[in-house]
Amino acid sequence: MKIVKAEIFMVDLKPKVKRVDAIQSFVSQETPIIRLTTSSGEIGEGYTYTIGTGGSSVVALLRDHLLPKLIGQDATMIEGIWESLLFSTHATSVGAITSLALAAIDTALWDLKCKRMNLPLYKVAGGAKSRMKLYTTEGGWLHLSTQELVDDALAVKAQGFCGSKIKIGSESPVRDIERLTAVREAVGDEYVIMTDCNQAFKFSEAKQRAALLEHINLSWIEEPFLAHDVDSHEKLCESTTIPVAVGESIYSIQHFKEYLQNNAADIIQVDVARIGGITPWLKVAHMAECFNKIVCPHFLMELHISLCCAITNSRWLEYIPQLDSVTLNKVDIREGYAFPPEEPGLGIQWDWQKIQTDTVVYHVIE
């Protein structure tokens, strides 16, 4: 099981719908994909992503520093490889580029492991459940009108989805309240509504909006502050009954530990790419369980469906399709539930003909 070859492909995936939040508009998803080949001819495929910028930097770190260290390594030593690669980048860790690059490698190694065991990822990683409730973010972007928010929520509710996430951060707090109130009145009290601030607020702003939102019965308020500001998240948790969700912009296990120890988050949104792969994702999820916290990961539903079904403390899966244009399969969704792939490996069937056609960067290391 020695690794003898590593290939890097990067495709730039354009979102199918306009995506605008309080701080940015999404115009591309640069997606580095790697393929590892072992001495016995087995192939493991992994990936990572960036939103808008940084993809070429992730590729450079993989090409110049990380993947050359993999050649000749035993692919079954996943934990050891992850730790050694992290240490080799100690001058740039903890950081987004390093974590995103490590995730591409780690997911490929887990793909190899699952294929070797002839089992799907969700069973190899834990096997806790066989389906997940879905909520959608695709119809809740900040640029959409109130009526568009209502129409989308009613449509997905009819499909069986459990809830919708709606972006907030309008210049006027009143507009945010009006939009959310309209959706709540349309869908009723049982439907789940989340809000996402995308790190846009100062403490006084978030405290005010949380107070105004209390009556709407929200399932969480997400990323009110910059991710490094543990203190403000802790104070907001103490001042509102609305659960506070954090995690998509956190890149280390230790940072999650700080949030959990300080009771600064109620919902843990660990992202498998941004935390550095499946290996650290599972550690964060199990650490959250020790603190009796819910895990609801950010984005990457094609991979997170398997990870959510591997653990006991997952609650909802975020519906935002990412990989449809470069895969031959889609997430199995029925009556508002997502079901994990049953085939061995990650369960993502890459369309290699399309990837090779659309690749903007390619490198091979042997």
TrEMBL record:
Its cofactor is Mg(2+). Gene3D superfamilies: Enolase-like C-terminal domain (3.20.20.120), Enolase-like, N-terminal domain (3.30.390.10). Residues 146-243 form the Mandelate racemase/muconate lactonizing enzyme C-terminal domain. Pfam families: MR_MLE_C, MR_MLE_N. It comes from the Bacteria. InterPro entries: Enolase-like_C_sf, Enolase-like_N, Enolase_C-like, Mandel_Rmase/mucon_lact_enz_CS, Mandelate_racemase_C, Mandelate_racemase_N_dom, RHMD-like. GO terms for biological process: amino acid catabolic process; carbohydrate catabolic process. Keywords: Magnesium, Metal-binding. CDD domains: MR_like. PROSITE patterns: MR_MLE_2. GO terms for molecular function: hydro-lyase activity; magnesium ion binding. PANTHER family: ENOLASE SUPERFAMILY, MANDELATE RACEMASE, MITOCHONDRIAL ENOLASE SUPERFAMILY MEMBER 1. This is Mandelate racemase/muconate lactonizing enzyme family protein.
